[in-house]
Every structure is written in C-alpha cells, then in structure tokens.
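From the pipeline queue, job 12 of 40. The input is one protein chain; the requested action is below.

Action: predict structure.
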Amino acid sequence: MDFVLDICDEYAFDKIWAHLVPASAFAAHNPLPIEHGLVNASSGLSQVAGIVAGPSKWAELVSFLPHPPLPVELDSPLYSSAALGSAWPRDYVPRQLLSLTLLTLVGIHVLYFIFAWLSYKFIFNHDMMRHPRFLKNQVKLEIMTSLRAFPMMTLLTLPWFQGEVMGYSRLYENVDDFGWAYLLFSIPFFLVFTDYGVYWVHRILHHPALYKHIHKPHHKWIIPTPFSSHAFHPVDGYLQSVPYHLFIFIFPLHRILYLGLFVFVNFWSIFIHDSDMITGHPLENIINGPAHHTLHHLYFTVNYGQYFTWADKWGGSYRQPESSLDPALDLKPLEADLKAQKSQ
C-alpha cells in the first residue's frame, strides 16, 4: 500500500491536501522567518503550491486543526511543489491514515465489483440460481453483506497498512537487494505461507465458539455466487487476511510484487466462489479450485485451504471433488418437473 500511496500523493493527494488543509490557513499562528532553506508559512508555502494567500471561511475553519511544525525544506527531492502547500505533509500520520482509508475503501470496492461481475457474467452458471438451496434475492443479499463489511474491514486493516507506510515492513524496492532468484522464489513462498495461514485461521473459525458469531454468516450462501466472496462478517474477512499482511513483516518481498499478489488474492477469492464443479483436471490434487471450495460450502468441514490442497491433506480435511457431488445435479429433477408441467 505504501507504493500506491506514493503514487497517489504525487499525482493527486498532494494537491487535494493542499486545498483541504492549506498551510496558508495557519500563517497567522506561525510567523516563522525564512532561514536555512526554510520558508515562512504565510508566504512561500502557499505560493509554492499555487495557493493564493489570504483568509477564507474554509481556512478559518481548518486553522484550529493540529499540525506538525510548518517549515519544510524546499529543495527536498521527496516532495513535489504541491506537497509543500499543505500543513499536513506526506509523513503526517493523520493524513496518512485518512489517505489510506480512502484508498482501501475505493480499492476494495473496485476490485470486488470488477472481478465479481466478470466472474458472474462469464463464468458463473446462472442455472444454479434455480437450485433449491439458492436464496431468494441472494445476489443482492451477497452484495449488501459485502458492502456492510468493507468499512469495518478497512478500519481493522489500517494498522497493517500504516506500518507499511512508516517503514516497519520488509518490503523493498531494489531487486538487487535480494536478487532475482529470491524475487522468483518469493512468489510460491508467499502463496504457500499464506495458504497454510488461511487454512488454520479458517479452520479455527469453524470452532463452535467462533463459528456461530463470526463465520456462520458466510456459510449462509450454500450455493455461492462470485459476489459471496466478500460477503461475511467483517472480523471474519479481516482474520483471514492477516496471513497476507503478516508475511511482509517477517519476510522480504518486493513492493510491486506484493501489490500484484494482493490483487491476485482478491481475484482468486472471487474465482473460487462460482459454485463450479468441473472435475478431472490434471492439477485437481494440487490446486484448491472452485470445485474444492464448492464442497466446502456444501459440507462445511472440508477443504479449508485457499490455493493448494496440501494443508487440507495434512490436516485431514481434504475432500476430493467428484462429478457425483455436483450441486448442478439437483437441478435435473426440477427440469424434469418443469418439462412434465409443460407437456400437460
């Protein structure tokens, strides 16, 4: 998230914060002289950002907000000129938290609706909506449950993202720091580590003491659609995301690669919720695909894993997908009854 925040600061947020919390609003309270490469808040700061100095109702309103010392180094290579116009610089924690909140909320909504809609439109078998265990207005209910979960999930996740931005993670930018071999190795390493982590979090959430209060809402969707992927209790969604955040605070990972893997995680979570039961493919014994997760929603205590089957096999919870278990078979009696009614 630090990479995304850097880009947004450079191309949008610096200007936005310069207008929302302009340094010129604090000029009357901070008459600082120009010295040692520093600039007075009443003159240089507002001019550098292209902000016209002078009082306004908004400036008067925000002038009582807390802020760090206003003088900044004009020749700092870290900031564009717009960055100097706000009394809240890029490294000010309240600004970072608010920016991260916005980015997380927008990002999770965009990823959810794009990937879920594509999967629902082009992959999901819409005949499954006639299944006897498919709820009335289920798609709408899944979407509404997801939207209610996103704000709390965002707040719970903020400390991890803030830790990244403040440099406490082991994310790195220069490939030469660890070499190309480690960069390539870190991809399967991340997937295996998080798969086992999610497996145990998921399995613990099925403990009776937790299941009823936290995880049961997600199992409301016996025949899930892609929109059910994020339709859970916010604490449930957060806990299952912890292994992804924890990894980068333990092991080095390239920051751009981490961003790509984070997008992939969201895509995969949506992809395995399409109620598909295609069996017999070569990787079935290794990859925990839609068929495996469909069985989890049908039988609850099998196939807890995210990407691979190894954790389930090791933990004794693996169930092999079989064509005879396909929930689509339950549609055949309905189709036969419908044909009989039409023939009468």
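Job complete. The beta strands are 171-172, 253-254.
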